[in-house]
Amino acid sequence: MTPRTVQTTSFIGGRHLPSLRTYANIDPATGAEIGQVARSGEDEVDAAVHAAAAAQKEWRRSSPEQRSKLLVATGALIRANREELARLESEDTGKPLMQAYADVDVCARYFDFYGHTIEAYYGHQIPLGDDMHVYTRREPYGVTGHIVAWNYPLQLIGRAAATSLATGNCAVAKPADETPRTTVRLAELIHEAGFPAGAFNVVVGLGAEAGDALAKHPGIAHLGFVGSTATGSLIAHAAADRVIPTVLELGGKSANVVFADADIGAAVPSLVRSFTQNAGQTCSAGSRLLVHASVHDEVVEKMSRAIDAMTVGRGLDDPGLGPLVSAKQRDRVQGFLDEVDASQILMGGGRPDGLAQELSGGAFVSPTIVAEVDPSQRIFHEEVFGPVVALTRFEDDDEALALANGTEYGLVSAVWTTNLSRAHRMAHQVEAGQVFVNTYGAGGGVELPFGGFKKSGYGREKSIEAFDEYTQTKTVVMKL
User: Fold this and answer.
1) Is 249 designated active site?
2) What is the pTM of this model?
3) Domain covering 7-250+458-479 in this structure, CATH number
4) Where are the beta strands (DSSP E) in 148-292?
5) Residue 92 to residues 31, 85, 89, 206: CA-CA distances in angstroms?
6) Do 185 and 81 touch, CB atoms closer than 8 A?
7) Domain regions of the chain by residue span
8) Catalytic position from the list 44, 249, 431, 469
9) Architecture of domain 255-445 in this structure
């Protein structure tokens, strides 16, 4: 277990590495300090990359069967430590405890899924003639670097670590400044499962210091990043300077499109959950709601009732809605709301009423519906990353499609209709990496390729397709 000291440390080469420089880890529900985090930098990143490179020399020669056993063992350890991991995740992020439990379970599933599928991941034999033997191999890059966001720390680093290790790479991870603890704990469990020391390393610290050093380190052969489009652009530039591949999962402004023939009663729980889960801090949040004019009032009325029934509080108390990750993020969300006309805010729009006194310093924002949003407004086309939905009416299918595609993002979309032809047409024409019909984000997504169109990024995480992102093809041609 992680030593219960006041400092969350980097984990490099199978051991903890404290730092003389630290910064405060803040509980977003109360604003109180819950510990110190090592403020690692270039030296620690360099040590982590060298540890990974040393481990990878042998790890790349391991068989798929060996990797499979260790990945599945890691999944079992994650489940065995479910309670501890969930409480750490809830405390760091502010998310309700049940959501944190779900994140732990999904993290474990990534290790199971990639542990089981890596044994069936092959190259191809290419028939060029009886006198030629031609085949391809999928080979690891070497040391992969991973910089992940604070909204789903365990899920994001779990999928990256499991895929990287399954394909014979070794890895260095930089968790978000605000949420380092579960990533460090995961590194301990990976080591405990039997992976070589240095196979998976974690450097904690500030993004501008440790994150920047990792992105620019010459020993990193492949970069993965989850976060804002602005920062992703910087990561892509750093990778381009060294001509290394990247996988970028960036911002989103995803739309639920509700047609007149939709089953409104079935849709509303998903419509609400899509923008309030994790306090709306989800890249694939359904933060735009496009509704046919004929059912607009019914949708608003049913959503309002569902939101009124939602509890708000500290994540560890398992409310319906927890705080945002930080006061900084709360202020950013409030800034968007302050820009819109007060008459557009149908409900919410500020701090929730009735919070306990101990939560007075917490980063809370009420679930908010902003109505009659025009496509020219910033809240329509920019990512808010809070429990806020922008509601816009439409009159016909063409207008719905134009509105759905009317942002620079293209991560997820959902279509709510009972018309099969319309469902297929919209699914084909919407510009998004995932399109759901009469559901939203169903199934947890471990088996589903995930990634964006346009400024939502490129490359794919999750599913078997992720193996292709973490390996490179070698073609072998033999004259017989």
Assistant:
1) yes
2) 0.95
3) 3.40.605.10
4) 170-174, 200-202, 222-226, 246-249, 255-258, 288-292
5) 11, 11, 5, 15
6) yes
7) 7-250+458-479, 255-445
8) 249
9) 3-Layer(aba) Sandwich (3.40)
